[in-house]
Amino acid sequence: QVQLVESGGGLVQAGGSLRLSCAASGNILSINAMGWYRQAPGKQREFVATITPGGTTNYRDFVKGRFTISRDNAKNTVTLQMNSLKPEDTAVYYCAALGVRKLTGQAYTSTIWGQGTQVTVSS
Fold first, then answer.
1. Taking the CA of residue 71 as centre, how many other CA atoms within 13 Å lie in the half-sphere pointing to its CB?
2. Residue 90 — left, alpha, or beta (φ > 0 → left; ψ -120 to 50 → alpha)?
3. Dihedral sign, CA of 35, 33, 107, 25?
4. Pairing verdict, β 18-25 and 3-7
5. What is the mean pLDDT of residues 91-95?
6. H or E segment and range at residue 85
7. What is the C-alpha separation between 85 and 67, in angstroms, rounded?
8. 19 - beta bridge partners?
């Protein structure tokens, strides 16, 4: 079974920084895109950033210039460096993996999600 485990959330003042990490495990051969989504109270989950195995990144406009996504393909990890945080960035942040293939050849057609990590930005 493939699992994603996030870490690095917490409480920070506006203007501060946090670094989120996510590690995928479960006899993984390869992962296509990895990314981060977030869900604020009372709102739907929304896309934040993704990165391909080749390093191509995609960001939502509201995080461009503030957040940086990176990954280590050999370790099956993805990180999200968040700078200049704003109170509106407060949410549960979820790691996502798309196009996961296991060493057994099993391929996952649906997105695999982590359990989420809370990020709270105080004003």
1. 27
2. beta
3. negative
4. antiparallel
5. 98
6. none
7. 9
8. 81
Tokens of 22: 């996510």
Report the mean per-residue pLDDT for the chain. 96
Burial of 101 (0-12, 13-18, 19+ CB in 10 A): middle
Give the pLDDT confidence of 22-66 residue by residue, as tens digits: 999 999 999 999 999 999 999 999 999 999 999 999 999 999 999
At position 122, the amino acid (one-letter code) is S
For 101, the token pair is 């293939």
Q: Is the pLDDT of residue 12 over 90?
A: yes
Could you give the CA distance from residue 27 to residue 63 in angstroms, rounded to a whole number?
Answer: 32
